[in-house]
Amino acid sequence: MDEIGHFIDGARVAGTTSRTADIFNPATGQVTAKLSLADAAQLQSAVDAAKAAQPAWAATNPQRRARIFMKFVALLNDNMQELAEMLSAEHGKTIEDSKGDIVRGLEVCEFVIGIPHLMKSEFTEGAGPGIDMYSIRQPVGIGAGITPFNFPAMIPMWMFAPAIACGNAFILKPSERDPSVPMRLAELMMEAGLPKGILQVVNGDKETVDNLLQHPDISAVSFVGSTPIAAYVYAEATKHGKRAQTFGGAKNHMIIMPDADLDQAVDALIGAGYGSAGERCMAISVAVPVGAETADALIAKLIPKVESLKIGPATDLSADYGPVVTKAAQQKILGLIEQGVAEGAELKVDGRGFSMQGYEDGFFVGSCLFDHVTPDMEIYKQEIFGPVLSVVRAKNYEEALDLPMKHEYGNGVAIYTRDGDAARDFASRINIGMIGINVPIPTPLAYHSFGGWKRSSFGDLNQHGPDSIKFWTRVKTVTSRWPSGIKAGAEFSMPVMK
Ligand code: NAD
Question: Running DSSP on this structure, what letter comes out for residue 51?
Fold first, then answer.
């Protein structure tokens, strides 16, 4: 049985506590490793290493910091297959999907190779007589990241790449479900030339997170996970004087207008609804056809496609999606499907009885499709995070628009239409952070920023792109005047521009 410890001060170290968590292979249901859960003393050793290393790292010129990421990107590409297999073995998603998880993180590492340019600041010559004014961006010091199970490569990289490129030390607390890839990423960053102590991985659970949130030497916290924990982490981090950005759950709708290309919309719904077993914060979980005719045609086209989805372990290269992450996740999803049936939604494709031959103990969930779902049902209100698509019928555009507008989550949304005016009106009025126009999963690329609205996000700066440079740095503004102007004498009133 493998034992997974932590990555502290440039090396893998064993856990020092008796508290552990089981790591599963979700396809077989078997325990594959024991993960050590850190206590306050182990976190302290990471903070000590970070404090010792960070000043020299911040003083390293940004071109040299960028070169570490150039090398790291090359190493990610060289190790892509090994990383993808490691990721799939703990998460369950297909190997191709795992590669996508890694590549979407790699792209943020490519983005931060531009750090010499990204950290350039503002300068005003002659802000007053003989006075120059400039602002500079400096690293916050030690940053921490707490990440979810569903993107164990991408989301850690979304956080540590900009944090480290800006000159910070970074402590990652990855999901306790799939920590092996984050540990390997830290190793590869060392191989790329990163000094020890700048990227560390402290594994753990709530206790470890609470220790991070209370630690006086950690200045900024980034979190991605479910909404109740995102709200909690935001409140705790800010209560302890830290800068925080925390991202939560989602219920992403796709509106299908009567003029949409229905075949295109159906293909988009299949990929965005069932890919990665629905365990994506940008998954489409609600389809909103506008008008009864659109709804009937959509359902007729969806049913055979949902029925023919191929489910299998990640090692089956022809599988469309794999198991969900844990037995608890599987049971929660099945419970919500039961509730949907009990509440009166029509289960058009019933995946409840699905069992994978040869993998009977795996955490598989068959594909489900609900029609006639209404906003008062739990399957509409809650994030199911499984291979379940709900169809909510709307009479007209305004009724369709109203649904995502009134939902508590505001991560992503999509509209399928051929009408530019409808698309433009939709993008302008909707209260959601990321909008797709004939694009089902509008995840912004690395050089734009990622984040939702409403209860999908807490804090005011998003992930990656320009926002990430702002989040991981502090602004300092210098007003300077050189000797010739200094003899004017004391000024007692508020300085204003003369
Ligand atoms: P989770 O909230 O269970 O866990 C996320 C992290 O929080 C983990 O590192 C975990 O160890 C820690 N944690 C769990 N319980 C805690 C507690 N009580 N106190 C402190 N820390 C705690 O989320 P998950 O199941 O790993 O991930 C799935 C969720 O993440 C979904 O809701 C999904 O929508 C969301 N997500 C959001 C985004 C986004 O950008 N908005 C991206 C990916 C995933």
Answer: H
CA of 420 to the centre of ligand 1 (A): 37
Q: Dihedral sign, CA of 387, 390, 396, 398?
A: negative
**Residues composing the chain:** 498
List, for residues 166-185, the tens digit of each pLDDT value: 999 999 999 999 999 999 99
pLDDT at 95 over 60: yes
Q: At 196, which amino acid appears?
A: K
| Token pair listed for 429 | 């009025």
Catalytic residues: 281
Which residue, 18, 17, 14, 9, is CA-closest to 45? 9
What pTM value is reported for the model?
0.96
Atom of ligand 1 nearest to the CA of 383: 32
Instruction: Specify the CATH architecture of the domain 2-248+456-478.
Output: 3-Layer(aba) Sandwich (3.40)
Where in the chain are all domains bearing CATH 3.40.309.10?
Answer: 252-437
Nearest to 19 by CA among 42, 41, 36: 36
Cα–Cα distances in angstroms (integers) from residue 265 to residues 169, 258, 328, 391, 468, in the given order: 44, 11, 32, 13, 33
Ligand 1 centroid to 479 CA: how many Å? 43
d(CA 351, CA 340): 13
ipTM of this complex: 0.99
Q: Whole-angstrom Cα distance, residue 254 to residue 437?
A: 10
Domain 252-437 falls in which CATH fold?
Answer: Aldehyde Dehydrogenase; Chain A, domain 2 (3.40.309)
Distance between CA atoms of residues 269 and 458, nearest Å: 28
Residue among 37, 149, 280, 330 to mutate when testing ligand 1 (max atoms within 8 A of CB): 149
- DSSP lists the bridge partners of residue 142 as 169
For every residue of 117-169, DSSP letters joined together read HHT--EEEEEEETTEEEEEEEEE-SEEEEE--SS-TTHHHHHHHHHHHHTT-E
Which residue's C-alpha comes closest to atom 24 of ligand 1? 148
